[in-house]
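Example 3.2
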Amino acid sequence: MAVRVPLVMNSGKVQQLQAGDTLSVFISANVTYYVATTGNDSNDGSSGSPWLTISHALAYLNGFVIAAGVSVTVSVGDGEFAHVASLNATHPQGSQIYIIGTNTYSKTSSSIQSSSGSSGAWSIIVNLNNVDNIAVNDYVLVSGASGGTRPHCVLGVWKVTNVDTGNKRITIATTIRYASAPSGNVVATFRCLKSILTFTDCSGVVVSKNNVINIASLMLVGNSTNTGVSSSGNTSTLSGGLVLCGSYVGVAKFKHGLRSSNSGSIFAENVIASSNGYGFYAEQTGNIQANSAISSGNDHDGFDAVSLSQVVCNVSRSIGNGGHGYLASTVSSIFAYNSVSFGNTSNGFNAGYASCITANVSTSSYNGNMGCYVAESGTIVADSTTITNNTNFGLYARTYGYMLATSATVSSNGTDYSPSANTQGNEYGYIDT
């Protein structure tokens, strides 16, 4: 005779008594749990009795099975949440868990009031339509900049160092590595993030193997070590973790802002990474999908795909980084259609060692070395791309590197072409126009 297992419904959770008196708990309806700086992990996680830490929320959820089609939200309140250990996502239904900041506030700039400082350390005063709900030590995501002079140089995620309520101005500290600051009537969107997660000597959000997690409306801040958003796995079994970044995610001050490796994947559309060692970094069969993302003011490169990896970052911006704007190396690929590489210390687009960058209808300008550099059997496709005002070379191909630059605009560089267009040179490099 079959054994009948008791079931108990309690606030949307079905509790099932298993053989051996083991109690399994199912979450069968959408539910939100709350985390606040005023909370306590002994509370029940309700809006009126929030928890203190996200790590406790994740540990609590690990005791439940989440039914198919059900979403569990961890709502993170305003303020700073300090961590000395990573947030490791290990729930088998992690794709149904959403860690989301409670409040963000959108503002619009009208102009740059003034700036001071130098390359890598700018202080910029910005005129906004209003400064309501912005406080010192908040972070702002800056996107969609146009007008004025050098509007790209305000793009990024930056800490607010002063708020002038009377004049509707804020001061932001940027690490753009370009010799001049933005000025004039720069119009941009400033999105203030109020839920700030800080991490000391540890990574931020971490997944591995087949685990998944969703995050949105959060600011992740490190102390120049480890990785802000990390996804890894096992290359031999093609089992990688997955981080799904929703709207309004900023990552700053880690060694790697976002890093995928060993079949791990990160979906990071519209994410902004600034003031890290590297912005977006895929290695060892890693995969990052970062369309419309911004990588700015990082110590080294903006977007990297190395060692059999891929980065898809169409309509992205790589601005004022200390290395290359986009780097593909060792049988890797970057797709950067309609993207901008501006004011980076080294090359705008750099492909080598049998790697490929597709950068059609893009712009590479005012970079400290070359606009596009291809070598060691690499390929760059730059049809209808604008390559101007780069310090040493516009387009440079060497050592069996191939560049397709049909209908490209190439002018005002130190040297526009090397070798000359449609001529083999520099150890069998070729630029095809």
